[in-house]
């Protein structure tokens, strides 16, 4: 394992030093390390001793440095947790699964870093170092091995310029910090501005809207004197002055069932026992546990928050093109294509599907299947960009037209270039796509 880990005594550059400590029973004693300098993906496990279980090559952002903003093609650096994953039976250029990281985390936000859509995902193409748009890319067969070991909201993913492990003296100091924090972490009211609540579920990162609006009330749990809270185990992770304290706890109230929770505290300071708390999270296993936890908050506070919740707005239908096709049909089609690409990039699925005819086909895929496919891609991709080059429009008659152009496509994960062909029909006052094909160039 010496080749994979350098201790602090060998640390000669500005890459942060990683330290850790465990105490008691924790939900997960594994952590992942992505070393950007070596383009290496490592899985470590601590069972009294640190063991390197797996190491595989990976690819990170094409541009060096820490991610600053969306679209800068950099991979963020810090300690992250996975929030959810997408799976598909079909193995594609992105593999059959994508695991989402919680970038930007509280430390990123404090530093003004922004963006989203950072994933660990596979590829069936040749793996090239430093070739992604910011994601962490692995070979499909390698990701299949390590993905089951990564637990949503629990397994830390440490992404660094170069991995340097703190020496034994500093790790012992971290364990002393953890002992000092044991009583502190039993306090309910530790998270500034109200804590957030997350589920350990691969189906999606978000709570139902009603529960999400009530989650900040968890800061008021300590007002109920009948509630007992005890620690089962704790973990402390540090990258220089950034610390994450993770505590597995049990909450009990009279005759009610125990609630098992994981709490995360993001701390900023050289000494975590006197550091400032940036944010606090509550993590529970499922929706039932979430409802039980929120039900313990003071009733009058919950009701007041619930009233402030507003339902989401219903998406608007796509606007029809009102001009007649015989009046400069080519310009009309150009406007239609521009609007179609705009809603495609904005990931407005209902508006996007409004540009397709009811009898649309793309190979063996019908309109319903096309919508399902696009819905999946919209969830996976944070950023989609589409440009048309060398556009050719041929109007066959007042109700039919053909379009060809070079499509330049890019997303969080990849870029491609191909020939796009569209068959258009004019129905009920607007041009619609009846057939669509794409050939890679």
- Oligomeric composition of the shown chains: single chain
Detail the poorly predicted runs. 300-326
Shape: elongated
Pairing-aware structural class of the strands and helices? alpha+beta
Determine the number of helices (DSSP H or I, runs of at least 4 residues): 9
What do you see in this structure?
With 441 residues, the protein is of the alpha+beta class. The protein has helices at residues 106-110, 140-146, 168-184, 209-214, 287-295, 299-307, 329-345, 349-353, 367-380, and strands at residues 6-7, 17-24, 30-35, 40-46, 50-57, 78-92, 95-101, 119-123, 136-139, 156-160, 164-165, 196-199, 227-239, 242-253, 259-268, 276-284, 356-362, 365-366, 384-397, 400-411, 415-427, 430-440. The strands form three sheets. The chain has an eight-stranded mixed sheet. An eight-stranded mixed sheet has the order 5-4-3-10-6-7-8-9, covered by helices on one side. The chain has a six-stranded mixed sheet with strand order 18-17-22-21-20-19, with helices on one face. Residues 300-326 have low confidence and may be disordered.
Gist of the model:
The chain is of the alpha+beta class and 441 residues long. The chain is 20% helix and 40% strand. A hairpin with a 2-residue loop joins strand 6 (78-92) and strand 7 (95-101).
Explain the layout of strands and helices.
Layout: E1 6-7, E2 17-24, E3 30-35, E4 40-46, E5 50-57, E6 78-92, E7 95-101, H1 106-110, E8 119-123, E9 136-139, H2 140-146, E10 156-160, E11 164-165, H3 168-184, E12 196-199, H4 209-214, E13 227-239, E14 242-253, E15 259-268, E16 276-284, H5 287-295, H6 299-307, H7 329-345, H8 349-353, E17 356-362, E18 365-366, H9 367-380, E19 384-397, E20 400-411, E21 415-427, E22 430-440
Parallel strand pairs: 1-11, 2-11, 3-10, 8-9, 12-16, 17-22
Antiparallel strand pairs: 2-13, 3-4, 4-5, 6-7, 6-10, 7-8, 13-14, 14-15, 15-16, 17-18, 19-20, 20-21, 21-22
């Amino acid at each position: 394992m010496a080749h994979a880990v350098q201790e602090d005594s060998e640390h000669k550059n500005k890459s942060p030093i990683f330290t850790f400590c465990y105490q008691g029973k924790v939900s997960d004693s594994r952590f992942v390390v992505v070393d950007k300098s070596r383009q290496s993906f490592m899985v470590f496990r601590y069972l009294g001793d640190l063991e390197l279980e797996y190491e595989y090559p990976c690819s990170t952002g094409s541009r060096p440095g820490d991610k600053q903003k969306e679209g800068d093609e950099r991979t963020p650096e810090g300690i992250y947790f996975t929030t959810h994953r997408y799976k598909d039976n079909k193995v594609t250029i992105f593999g059959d699964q994508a695991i989402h990281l919680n970038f930007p985390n509280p430390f990123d936000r404090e530093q003004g870093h922004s963006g989203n859509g950072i994933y660990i995902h596979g590829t069936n193409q040749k793996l090239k170092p430093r070739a992604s748009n910011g994601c962490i890319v692995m070979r499909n067969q390698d990701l299949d091995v390590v993905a089951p070991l990564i637990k949503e909201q629990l397994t830390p993913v440490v992404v660094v310029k170069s991995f340097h492990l703190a020496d034994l003296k500093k790790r012992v100091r971290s364990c002393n910090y953890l002992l000092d924090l044991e009583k502190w972490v039993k306090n309910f009211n530790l998270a500034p501005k109200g804590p957030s609540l997350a589920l350990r579920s691969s189906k999606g990162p978000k709570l139902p809207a009603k529960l999400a609006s009530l989650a900040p009330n968890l800061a008021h749990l300590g007002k109920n004197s009948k509630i007992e809270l005890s620690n089962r185990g704790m973990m402390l992770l540090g990258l220089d002055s950034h610390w994450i304290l993770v505590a597995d706890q049990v909450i009990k109230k009279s005759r009610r069932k125990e609630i098992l929770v994981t709490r995360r505290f993001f701390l900023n300071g050289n000494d975590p026992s006197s550091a400032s708390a940036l944010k606090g999270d509550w993590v529970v296993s499922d929706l039932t546990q979430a409802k039980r936890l929120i039900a313990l908050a003071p009733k009058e506070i919950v009701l007041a928050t619930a009233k402030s919740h507003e339902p989401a707005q219903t998406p608007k239908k796509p606007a029809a093109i009102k001009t007649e096709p015989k009046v400069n049909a080519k310009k009309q089609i150009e406007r239609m294509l521009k609007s179609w690409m705009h809603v495609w990039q904005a990931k407005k699925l209902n508006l996007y599907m409004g540009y397709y005819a009811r009898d649309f086909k793309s190979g063996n895929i019908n309109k319903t299947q096309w919508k399902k496919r696009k819905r999946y891609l919209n969830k996976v991709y944070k950023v989609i960009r589409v440009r048309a080059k060398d556009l050719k429009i041929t109007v066959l008659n007042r109700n039919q037209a053909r379009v060809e152009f070079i499509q330049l496509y890019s997303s969080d994960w990849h870029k491609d270039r191909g020939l796009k062909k569209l068959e258009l029909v004019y129905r009920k006052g607007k041009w619609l796509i009846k057939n669509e094909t794409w050939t890679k160039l």
